[in-house]
């Protein structure tokens, strides 16, 4: 067993102290969803509001959602109100201003402190993310753009607003990104960037092999583990490409997503990108066979009894990458229904991988479709390491840490 490495404790969002600052724009209603999303991810969330924000959403809404009193007045009469903003500034591990109006952006750029939120912001040392949301013309205004450039220069993370029809009736940039996207970027803000400069290629999901125009052969892979690997690597600062079969998952933010259907397409896209990658993680459940001949019309029932389908083997992409690889670290996933370690060991050797992540894909503990996974890591030098059942996101971080140990 390898020694427990420090990266096992990759600190994600769980239990982290996050302050959401809400300023007075119509998008303030979306901030309630943002607080909910962050709380759902396990964060300890506190909310600060400007006086104008209280016209859009009542502080009670945020108090109920966050489980903490809301701070909106430097002098609200409560016993600890006068120091609350300083105390919260010291405790915050990340801050997100959503929505950020032109007014608060201007005040932040100028270093002003004329209410609870702006005073708090001057005292914060944690990373701060700003989510501008306003009328398109206001957003494009030179003063606002100048202030945003200043904030970026000062080290604030500015999340680009979305483009579309805005509440004020104009169309263009200025829409606050969806709460799930902002919550995802807050998660990223909290993770140590130990993969900066690394190019990571991940394959995920099942493949689909057509039989006729309406039918295909596939498998039960949900793509969750591969998507979790891609997301975790992006959080840690890597440049990530995700070659993915058809899944029902939202594409990870800031990842180059390459959708494919068949094993042949996956092979083509993966082999074309391998030379450029430092780390290749093949999580995909690639179909081993495809129809020898794809029928041009729908196959009708009632023909000869016992329809026989002739199949031919697909290329083994991992094996091909293993043959061609130079300095890349190559990681495969073994999907087994029996003799987990024995079968995975064989794949490790045959495919020239540096690590195989072995997981069971049958029965009640199946990794397919589950939110959690329990795996055994097999290394080239013969080491084996069993990792306890855990959430796929957390597991992805542990696997990435082990991969970094190999570099
Ligand atoms: N793999 C691949 N190309 C294939 C089949 C598998 O790249 N045509 C990769 C998978 O992405 C995974 C690893 O090989 O990383 C192991 O896949 P798995 O389905 O467990 O095993 P197979 O090699 O297909 O062997 P078997 O079906 O006999 O278990």
Description of the structure:
The protein is of the alpha/beta class. It is 34% helix and 24% strand. It is built from 14 helices and 19 strands. It has helices spanning 28-40, 53-56, 59-66, 81-91, 102-110, 116-123, 136-140, 142-153, 179-190, 224-235, 263-274, 317-324, 340-350, 392-406, and strands at residues 17-22, 44-49, 94-100, 128-132, 157-158, 162-165, 171-175, 199-204, 209-212, 215-217, 239-244, 256-259, 279-282, 289-291, 311-313, 329-336, 355-360, 372-379, 384-391. The strands form 5 sheets. The chain has an 8-stranded mixed β-sheet, with helices on both faces. α1 links the parallel β1 and β2 (44-49). α1 (28-40) runs parallel beside α3, α4 packs parallel to α6 and α10 packs across α14 (392-406). The model is unreliable at 1-7 (pLDDT under 50). The structure holds cytidine-5'-triphosphate (CTP). Cytidine-5'-triphosphate is lined by residues 263, 282, 284-286, 288, 314, 316-318, 332-335, 347. Cytidine-5'-triphosphate (CTP) binds next to α12 and β16.
> What's the average pLDDT?
93
Unreliable residue runs:
1-7
**What is the beta-strand fraction?**
15-25%
What best-fitting shape do the alpha-carbon axes yield? elongated
Give a topology summary.
Elements: E1 17-22, H1 28-40, E2 44-49, H2 53-56, H3 59-66, H4 81-91, E3 94-100, H5 102-110, H6 116-123, E4 128-132, H7 136-140, H8 142-153, E5 157-158, E6 162-165, E7 171-175, H9 179-190, E8 199-204, E9 209-212, E10 215-217, H10 224-235, E11 239-244, E12 256-259, H11 263-274, E13 279-282, E14 289-291, E15 311-313, H12 317-324, E16 329-336, H13 340-350, E17 355-360, E18 372-379, E19 384-391, H14 392-406
Parallel strand pairs: 1-2, 1-3, 3-4, 4-5, 8-11, 8-13, 11-12, 13-16, 16-17
Antiparallel strand pairs: 6-7, 9-10, 14-15, 17-18, 18-19
The structure holds cytidine-5'-triphosphate.
Cytidine-5'-triphosphate (CTP) is lined by residues 263, 282, 284-286, 288, 314, 316-318, 332-335, 347.
């Amino acid at each position: 067993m390898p020694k427990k490495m420090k990266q096992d404790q990759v600190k994600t969002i769980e239990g982290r102290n996050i302050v959401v600052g809400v300023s007075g724009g119509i998008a303030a209603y979306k901030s309630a969803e943002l607080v909910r999303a962050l709380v759902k991810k396990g964060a300890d969330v506190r909310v600060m509001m400007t006086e104008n924000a209280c016209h859009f959403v009542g502080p009670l809404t945020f108090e109920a959602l966050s489980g903490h009193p809301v701070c909106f007045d430097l002098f609200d009469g409560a016993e600890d109100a006068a120091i609350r903003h300083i105390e919260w500034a010291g405790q915050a591990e990340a801050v997100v201003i959503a929505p950020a109006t032109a007014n608060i952006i201007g005040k932040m750029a100028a270093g002003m402190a004329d209410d609870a939120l702006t005073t708090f912001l001057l005292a914060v040392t944690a990373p701060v993310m700003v989510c501008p949301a306003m009328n398109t013309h206001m957003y494009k205004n030179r003063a606002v753009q100048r202030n945003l450039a200043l904030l970026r220069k000062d080290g604030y993370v500015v999340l680009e607003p979305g483009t579309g029809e805005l509440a004020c009736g104009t169309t263009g940039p200025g829409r606050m990104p969806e709460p799930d996207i902002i919550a995802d970027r807050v998660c990223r803000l909290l993770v140590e960037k130990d993969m900066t400069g690394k190019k990571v290629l991940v394959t995920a999901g099942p493949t689909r092999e057509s039989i006729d125009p309406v039918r295909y052969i596939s498998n039960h892979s949900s793509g969750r583990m591969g998507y979790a690997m891609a997301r975790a690597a992006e959080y840690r600062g890597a440049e990530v490409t995700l070659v993915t079969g058809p899944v029902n998952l939202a594409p990870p933010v800031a990842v180059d997503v390459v959708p494919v259907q068949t094993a042949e397409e996956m092979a083509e896209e993966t082999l074309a990108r391998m030379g450029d990658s430092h780390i290749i993680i093949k999580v995909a459940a690639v179909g081993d066979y495809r129809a020898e001949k794809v029928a041009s019309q729908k196959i009708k029932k009632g023909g000869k009894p016992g329809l026989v389908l002739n199949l031919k083997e697909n290329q083994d992409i991992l094996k091909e990458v293993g043959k061609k690889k130079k300095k890349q670290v190559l990681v495969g996933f073994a999907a087994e229904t029996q003799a987990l370690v024995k079968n995975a060991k064989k794949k490790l050797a045959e495919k020239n991988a540096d690590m195989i992540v072995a997981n069971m894909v049958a029965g009640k503990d199946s990794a397919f479709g589950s939110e959690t996974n329990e795996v055994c890591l097999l290394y080239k030098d013969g080491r084996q390491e069993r990792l306890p059942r855990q959430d796929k996101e957390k597991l992805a971080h542990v696997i990435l840490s082990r991969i970094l140990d190999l570099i």
